[in-house]
Amino acid sequence: MRVAAHAHRMRFLTRRMCLASGLAALLPACGDFPRDAEDTLKSIRAGRPLRVGWSVAAPWVRAGAPEPGGLEPDLVRAFAATLGARIEWRQASQEQLVEAVQQHAIDLLVAGLEESLPWSGRVGTTQPYVEYAGRKRVIALPPSENALALALDRFLHERKAWIWARLQEEVQR
Amino acid sequence: MKPLAPVEFPPEVEQTWRRARRLEWITLGYLASAACLLYVTMGTSQAMRTSFYEDVISLVPAAAFLVGTSIARRRADPTWPYGTHRATSIAHLVAAIALCGMGLFLLAEAAMKVFTGEKPTIGGMTIMGTVVWAGWPMLGALLYSSVPSFILGRMKLRLAPKLHDKVLHADAGMMRADWMAESATAVGVIGTGFGLWWLDPAAAALVSLSILRDGLANLRTAVTDLADRRPRRADDTEWEPWPERLREMLLKLDWVQAAEVRMREAGHIFLADVLVVPRPGTPDLVARIAEAAESARQLNWRVHEVTIMPVERIPD
Asked: Given A35, A144, A154, which is nearest B119 (Cβ)?
């Protein structure tokens, strides 16, 4: 009985030591954490254009040529500027864009999307950046691009006041 | 109808029983709070939602223990001549099904993730005005939810053999399932942070198989106990020795020529039917049988009622 208890204890301790050394091994990597599964943010920072899919959804996204207008495209332009990236715009239906973002064919999707999406889980989203008339809005991105999501979430959070002012303007149009 | 005599737990078992009940109340309160915390932090994360459902399922064995044991200790009366000890076995069945359900749920969840190509995305979360990586609060919630499960599970595992309570055993299994599943989720969250999205379903599938195995073992025990299998120890390691001990004790009596014992488990207690062949010409047979039945009960507090039937020969 005593021997068994001792063996159990040892196993428990060993397990704890494994866990501790595992965590210690993770620490130096924290500078580059979280990471993207497909390194989207890293390659955009390195000079790849930001591919943005859009579909008209007033007042969030308004039709325009050659570039869309409205709140969300403006936000994306400002975000691209912080990364020093050029934007490639692609217009399509929301359905096609969801497919494209799921397959990493585009990096962001703006279409005035709501937080509760039937296809959430297949793609990633930002946290809701604004709530208007009881509905929360998000921007979609490819699945498991965690660094990109975090960078965009931080960007959107810093512009809360600007977003709100801009939304009032858009709604009045 | 003459009901069974009331069951008295020996003082140390009574004390353990009270501690176990207190432990289960703590479990209920704590799991409910953990479920609330997970519900608040889960957002759209599938993994966190799964943890929430897990917490809800893991409330079941604790609740089954509290309900089952309090019913089991009611006094026998003419309507319930054998008492309500089987409530413990039914509670065990409920706990075992919950444990199986937990394993199946996790396995299905992991399989679904693989088949639908769902990949977790963990971005930012705003906490008190700053955006942090949402993985950190998730890990915090998981830690809050798994460390107490780990401790409670080990405490229950210590009490269960003293109390001979299979529900408590199953519940300790559920606590283990709980912290293992949450560790798997944590591995998934950290893996996602490193861009390794597949770690989440892989860890969950591995853990779910272990939980399912535990659940099936409990289910088998619960069903076979209800079907009057011979008594087996609460930790399912070996048979209870009491049928043999009882037979040996009877065979040592000078008036007993042969004896056969049938014993079954009714929750915490054992009920035995005994056939004895008295030596021919034994005087005061009725008094001797009563005396033997009484000393049989002294073997162990769990050997609660022994019915002894004198026969001419043991039937084949």
From this structure: A144
Instruction: Pinpoint the residues of chain B covered by CATH 1.20.1510.10.
Output: 11-226
Digit-coded pLDDT (tens) for A14-69: 555 555 555 555 554 556 899 999 999 999 999 999 999 999 998 999 998 889 99
Give per-residue burial for B54-65: e unless 16+ CB within 10 Å, then b: bbebbbbbbbbb
What does residue B254 show for φ and ψ, rounded to 5 degrees? -70, -20
Strand locations in B64-123 (E): none
All residues of chain B having their beta carbon less than 8 Å from the beta carbon of residue A144 are: 119-121, 192, 195, 197
pTM for the predicted model, two decimal places: 0.80
Chain segment A118-136, per-residue pLDDT in tens:
776 789 999 999 999 899 9
Are the beta carbons of A53 and A97 closer than 8 angstroms? yes
Question: How close B88 comes to chain A (CA, Å)?
Answer: 28
Which of chain B's residues have a Cβ under 8 Å away from the Cβ of A141? 121
SS3 A11: helix
Q: β-strands B124-127, A50-54: how paired?
A: unpaired
Closest CA to A141 of A168, A167, A106: A106
Indicate the residue of A29, A102, A153 with minimum beta-carbon distance to B124: A153
Radius of gyration over every alpha carbon of chain B, rounded to an integer in angstroms = 25
Q: Give first-to-last CA distance, chain B, whole Å.
A: 31
Tell how strand B124-127 and strand B256-266 pair up.
unpaired
| CATH of segment(s) B242-310 | 3.30.70.1350
Q: Report the run of H or E that residue B169 belongs to, with start and end.
A: helix B166-193
Separation of alpha carbons B232 and B179, rounded Å: 28
Tell me the two tokens of residue B295: 């000393």
- CB atoms near residue B205 (< 10 Å): 17
Residue A152, chain B, CB below 8 Å: the answer is yes
Distance from CA of A172 to the nearest CA of B (A): 29
Domain with CATH 3.30.70.1350 in chain B: 242-310
In the CATH scheme, what is the code of domain B11-226? 1.20.1510.10
CB of A36 within 8 Å of a chain B CB? The answer is yes
ipTM greater than 0.95: no
The residue among B231, B238, B233 whose CA lies nearest residue B304 is B231
